[in-house]
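Inputs:
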Amino acid sequence: MDFTTFDKRGYRTVDVRAGYGEWVSTYEDTVEDVMDIALLDRLRVPDWAAVRQAADLGCGTGRTGRWLREHGVASIDGVDLTPEMLDVARRRGAHRSLAEADATDTGLPDATYDLVICSLIDEHLGELPPLYREAFRLARPGGLFAVVSFHPHFIMASGMPTHFTSRSGEDLAITTNLHLISDHVAAALGAGWQLAELREGVVGDEWLAVKPQWERYRGHPVSAAYVWRRT
Ligand SMILES: C[S@@+](CC[C@H](N)C(=O)[O-])C[C@H]1O[C@@H](n2cnc3c(N)ncnc32)[C@H](O)[C@@H]1O
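Outputs:
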């Protein structure tokens, strides 16, 4: 679904590499843990400490990787499209390996991972089936795929793309696509996954503590976490 119908900001849009290549210097100061980390904290299905090998697609600066390591995940291979984000992840040291690659064509080995995870990247993908197919290829039988997303309802209601403020002070959007929850379900089932868990994050006190200007969105779903199982 096309985001431009809902766009209330009208920011100039740049592609993923250009956007994150510049946002990297302030990324960790602006991304809120309550968007993704708070949802990971609520998931019940993955037994994180039992995960020996994980693949982290769109690993960025390694925030997700650090959380996984803190929760007992032994070994994580990360891929990302943006070299500058990978440089920060390299310095952080949470991953066993890091490579510049597309999340839909990672070059990682078949049927290897107990857990494949991608956090806050799917709105940048034009379509979801290639992501779900690649994750299915990487997961071992019985393995899990955890997807954390910017909620489509929130993108529509706020009219806000993924965006940042450039060094020159311009607000820039990074290519943003809308994927309904049913798009995730269709792509996942089509690739062979079965749903194991789904949680949604809503704007509440935790959010308003960091974004008081979001009072008008109180109660709106803002993020979602899906856990799929390869049976
Ligand atoms: C919002 S950041 C999330 C990073 C990290 N998962 C986190 O939670 O902080 C999105 C990341 O996805 C990466 N990305 C976007 N599209 C991608 C694609 N098709 N393949 C690989 N990485 C991609 C970007 O380069 C960026 O580092």
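Remarks. Residues 181-191 form the longest helix (11 residues). The first strand starts at residue 12 and ends at 14.
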